[in-house]
Amino acid sequence: MLVDIHNHILPGLDDGAQSMEEAILLATNAVANGVTHIIATPHHLNRKYTNSSAEVKEAVANLYRELFRENIPVKILPGQEIHLTANILDELDNNLLTLANSGKYILIELPNNHIPTNTLEVFYQIQLKGYIPIIAHPERNSVLRRNKQLLYEFVSKGALIQITASSLIGVNGRSLKKYTKVLIKHNLVHFISSDAHHYLERPFLLKKAYQYITKKFSKSHVTYYCENANHVIFGTEFQPLPPICFKKKSSNMN
Ligand SMILES: [Fe+2]
Fold this sequence. Notes:
The protein has 254 residues and is an alpha/beta fold. The protein has ten helices and nine strands. The protein has one domain: Metal-dependent hydrolases (TIM Barrel, Alpha-Beta Barrel), CATH 3.20.20.140. A six-stranded parallel beta sheet has the order 3-5-6-7-8-9. Strands 1-2-4 form a three-stranded parallel beta sheet. β6, α4 and β7 form a beta-alpha-beta unit. α9 packs across α10. It is globular. Bound molecules: fe (ii) ion. The site of fe (ii) ion has 5 residues, from loops.
């Protein structure tokens, strides 16, 4: 079982697959990467796209029917990549989809260039309601790139982190590759996923990412990330590795 928890495979809903044909090509690309379960996460509540849970579920059913017809062996499950907005807490119980609709994990996209001041409080409220926030690709946020300690604070307070396969293997530049490696070293990564949008331009790349992790870290890192993603499907909790702080120990005064 290999689960991808973040991608834009559903056709015509956002800037991902634009047609059923493209979605099928992307699904074929997922299968070539060993993926067995795709949690489709179209953008939601960002300035450009709104995709209600009903629309997502219908699109998932349509795509799954086509894949079954084409004999492509991958399961599609519903989800959303939810932009962190002021009304996210009001939307939570009624209109938002947890990943795989399993009632536990919520994929949250932060703005690219700032962190809203109430972010920690919102994450706290999300957890009070029984959900676990997963921060999508922190490497895309300029504040978190500069301030890794802030990411550590989020994780210490119960948030989980997803990084994108393409960032880790260097497709998005050397600095993101270096940054995501540092996050792994500090136990600040819980999921590797594709954020796939297009079968050629932004494909799955999970196989390469896991090969890279095996080489640079260990096979048990790969097992950890795969098992964590399995928990998302089932909506079960797991014990993350303890995050490692970035702050230097205070120097000896003597
Ligand atoms: Fe995404």
